[in-house]
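We close this part of the discussion by returning to an individual protein. The sequence in question and its structure tokens are set out directly beneath this paragraph:
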Amino acid sequence: MYDDISDPALIELKSFVQQHPKALEHEPLWYWAALSSFSVSQLGPGEDRFQTVTDDVYKRIALLFNDEATEPSEAAKLLVAKFQLAPYVEPADLERQLQVWIFNCFDLGTISGTGASAKPQGYAILFVPSFMSHS
């Protein structure tokens, strides 16, 4: 998942994140990755603002999340409402996708900054390494 600065939906998302800094506390790329991790059939007819994955890739991504009961964050609720994704995507679905990216992704390159202030150019989920023990 890359930071495509020319994508209209990503531009809109970045602006929305800036408008809601308390609820949307992560960098926009995290939300972008989560929003772009659904298959075409899950987003509903005619939804083409986000990148999509195949049903098989979605199933693999779902394997990386194992929390039984997740209450959706305020961020997930706001994003589903903002992009009018209901009834196809529920806030809990988006929350699961967000958690998968937060806990399983690897940074790809950097856009700017050094050390802790460096911002990644993109994120990737590497399926097999994601199953390795974090202890």
Remarks:
- The radius of gyration is 15 Å.
- The mean pLDDT is 83.
- The chain has six helices and two strands.
- Helices lie at 8-19, 28-35, 40-43, 55-63, 74-82, 91-104.
